């Protein structure tokens, strides 16, 4: 049986220079080192690898290739790569050729054409719009790539490989799914009939080295005085909600904040697709589960929050509040789990309070609007508002304190804010400023031996 398309022969009758194996196969570590050094010296090889990917996608019988074992697949691809290298007069020695071919095989048996994008540290998001088009986000800006899939069936095979890895499914009866890659990258998939033109895949890449606060300060997303307040709040068990739009950096900040949680505390995380990267030694991770083909077996965030309360947590961290679980989260914060944290999609701190109120109402509890707001005000103390600006930069736009209720209105006071000043070809410029308001919880922090200088909150100079 031929492993290739019938329209074109790919095998060369000439002796192939990779038929004789090298005297010593490099170890995986050696291979990675040699490959990286090769790319560093000759960046154009990345373009050649992309061209090879395109040719393989267009010319190989992919469904047959996927049935091959790794060794047999390596032999087939290595032969084709050697012919290509010879024809294009690319200068590679035997060891470099072996490693170059193995890299391409690894990408084929991984996630196909997007594997190089997943390995690219400059790429934050991979956005596949049908099998014909793929965009990436680099440094906050979208750009189109030359990556494509052979046809819709090829893309669907990659999609099924992704969802099968986390025990989920996607088909006409269940055309949307949230999943994650083995490295933790978050994936959202939509296929026909809801995605009219063909499958759409959105991948938020997992960062092997999550940003810490020092890095966020370095890139200008926040200032040291603001970080000191947040560090003290986390250590002093002040409950926090991080608010912002899609891609504004909510999960990144939540990860960074978690570094300040004492190592002797037990944390339980709850997410739709596990992506938090907490560094503490005592972390239990819970993940929702969709229903099966019979419509049974779904486990929602609300059930996980209830279950987490039976697991003796010191703090509960919900990756994102988006529904009725908000009620149980607030109840947990009000009953001995202070210092818990979550995120929410909202455009301002006040909008975040409105959304929380709507979510609590979704739980079906017979509570008046005033009672719901009172529950929110007593559970939460700090709201951090994030925004991805039009120039692609992500910034902490505001840190506000919830001070309680006045009548039936939640009272808030802003402590720090980002003030936009002007825009030029380099982006949006502004300064961080204190509002002059001292947080009312500073007295509570003193019980933990934490004292923040009053100068942090003076308005005389930008932060």
Structure description:
This protein has 463 residues and is of the alpha/beta class. The protein contains 15 helices and 15 strands. The chain has helices at 28-41, 44-59, 62-65, 70-87, 94-109, 115-119, 152-164, 213-218, 224-235, 250-258, 301-308, 325-334, 349-362, 369-379, 442-446; strands at 123-129, 133-138, 141-144, 176-180, 186-190, 200-204, 240-244, 267-271, 283-287, 315-318, 341-345, 382-388, 394-406, 409-424, 427-434. Helix 4 (70-87) crosses helix 5 and helix 12 (325-334) packs across helix 14 (369-379). The longest helix has 18 residues, at 70-87. The radius of gyration is 26 Å and the shape is globular.
Structural key phrases:
9-stranded mixed β-sheet, 6-stranded antiparallel β-sheet, 15 helices, alpha/beta, single chain, 15 strands, 463 residues
Number of helices in the DSSP assignment: 15
Structure class? alpha/beta
Unreliable stretches (pLDDT < 50, length at least 5) are 1-29
- Total number of strands: 15
End-to-end distance, in Å?
69 Å
How would you summarize this macromolecular structure in one to three sentences?
With 463 residues, the chain is α/β, with parallel strands linked by helices. The protein is built from 15 helices and 15 strands.
In terms of topology, how is this protein built?
Elements (H helix, E strand, L loop, with lengths): L27 H14 L2 H16 L2 H4 L4 H18 L6 H16 L5 H5 L3 E7 L3 E6 L2 E4 L7 H13 L11 E5 L5 E5 L9 E5 L8 H6 L5 H12 L4 E5 L5 H9 L8 E5 L11 E5 L13 H8 L6 E4 L6 H10 L6 E5 L3 H14 L6 H11 L2 E7 L5 E13 L2 E16 L2 E8 L7 H5 L17
Helix pairs in contact: 1-5, 4-5, 11-12, 12-13, 12-14, 13-14
């Amino acid at each position: 049986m031929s492993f290739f398309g019938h329209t074109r022969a790919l095998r060369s009758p000439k002796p192939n220079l990779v038929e004789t194996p090298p005297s010593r196969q490099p170890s995986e570590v050696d291979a990675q080192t040699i490959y990286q050094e090769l790319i560093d010296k000759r960046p154009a090889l990345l373009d050649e690898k992309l061209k090879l990917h395109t040719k393989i996608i267009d010319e190989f019988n992919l469904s047959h290739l996927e049935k091959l074992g790794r060794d047999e697949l390596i032999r087939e691809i290595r032969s084709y790569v050697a012919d290509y290298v010879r024809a294009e007069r690319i200068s590679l020695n035997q060891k470099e050729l072996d490693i170059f071919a193995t890299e391409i095989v690894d990408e084929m048996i991984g996630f196909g054409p997007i594997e190089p994008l997943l390995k690219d540290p400059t790429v934050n998001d991979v956005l596949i719009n049908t099998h014909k088009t793929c965009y990436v986000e680099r440094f906050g800006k979208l750009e189109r790539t030359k990556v494509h899939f052979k046809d819709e069936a090829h893309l669907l095979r990659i999609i099924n490989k992704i969802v099968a890895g986390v025990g989920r499914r996607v088909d006409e009866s269940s055309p949307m799914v949230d999943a994650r890659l083995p490295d933790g990258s978050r994936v959202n998939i939509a296929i026909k009939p809801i995605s009219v033109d063909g499958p759409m895949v959105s991948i938020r890449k997992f960062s092997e080295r999550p940003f810490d606060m020092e890095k966020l300060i370095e890139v200008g997303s926040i200032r040291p005085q603001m970080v000191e307040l947040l560090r003290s709040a986390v250590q002093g068990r002040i409950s926090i909600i991080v608010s912002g739009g899609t891609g504004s950096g909510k999960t990144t900040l939540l990860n960074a904040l978690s570094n300040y949680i004492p190592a002797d505390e037990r944390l339980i995380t709850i997410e739709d697709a596990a992506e938090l990267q907490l560094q503490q030694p005592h972390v239990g991770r819970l993940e929702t589960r969709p229903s099966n083909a019979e419509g049974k077996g779904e486990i929602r965030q609300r059930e996980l929050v209830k279950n987490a309360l039976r697991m003796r947590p010191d703090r509960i961290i919900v990756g994102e509040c988006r529904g009725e679980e908000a009620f149980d989260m607030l109840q947990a914060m009000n009953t001995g789990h202070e210092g818990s944290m979550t995120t929410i999609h909202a455009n301002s701190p006040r909008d975040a309070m409105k959304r929380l109120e709507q979510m609590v109402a979704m739980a079906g509890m017979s509570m008046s609007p005033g009672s719901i707001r009172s529950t929110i005000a007593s559970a939460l103390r700090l709201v951090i508002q994030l925004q991805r600006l039009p120039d692609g930069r992500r910034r902490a736009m505001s840190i506000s304190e919830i001070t309680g209720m006045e009548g039936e209105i939640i009272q808030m006071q802003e402590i720090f804010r980002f003030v936009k000043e002007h825009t030029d070809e380099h982006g949006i410029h502004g300064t961080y400023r204190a509002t002059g308001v001292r947080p009312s919880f500073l007295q509570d922090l003193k019980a933990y031996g934490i004292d923040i200088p009053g100068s942090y909150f003076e308005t005389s100079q930008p932060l």
